[in-house]
Amino acid sequence: MKSRSQFVCQQCGATYAKWIGQCTNCQAWNSLVEQISESATNAKSALAKGAVSGKKLDFVKLSSITPSDAKARLLTEFSDLNTVLGGGILLGSVSLLAGQPGIGKSTLLMQICAEIAKTRPVLYISGEESAGQVKLRAERLGAKSDKLNFASSTSGNDIAKTIESGEFDLVIVDSIQTLAMDEISSAPGTVSQVTNCGNLIIRAAKSTDTAVVIVGHVTKEGTLAGPKVLEHLVDVVLNFEGDRYGGFKTVRAIKNRFGSTNEVAIFEMANSGLKEVKNPSEALLAERTNTDGSIILATLEGNRPILVEIQALATKSNFGYPKRTASGFDLNRLNLLIAVLERRTKLQLSDKDIFINVVGGMKLADSAADLAVCMAIASAVAGRKLGGEYVVFGEVGLGGEIRSAFRADQRIAEAKKLGFKHAIAPATIHDKFVIPMKDLRETLIKYVK
Question: What is the mean pLDDT of residues 263-290?
Answer without folding.
Answer: 89
